[in-house]
Amino acid sequence: MTTTAVASAVEDYARAWLETDPAARRALLERCWAEDGVYCDPIGRATGRDGLADHIGGFQAEQPGARLEVVSGVDEHDGHLRFGWQLRAPDGSVALEGTDFGELDGDGMLRRIIGFFGPLPPGGPTS
User: Fold this and answer.
1) Does 125 reside within a domain?
2) What domain count does the chain have?
3) pTM for the full predicted model
């Protein structure tokens, strides 16, 4: 999988989070999300394209005017990827930031996204 193809899949995925028209959102997910893909973050889980499309619609209803933006490049190896994002409030301020980790299927579609909110927790290994 080329870096460009992976970045394109993540771009379509991010655009789906911004798309308010359900049919257009579904069309974006058909280009990047595996039919049986699984999304999960600390407050939600969705399976399949329809499940993710509905989850995004629910997010938009709960957070009107909020925007999810990818704020880093996409780091990929061996079918796994990560990228940083920010949730911007309607006034443009950063309401939340985090990192998504993902997995691609054999066709380069996103098969799994696991979202983490906020920065890494402090600490380290204990002796």
Assistant:
1) no
2) 1
3) 0.92
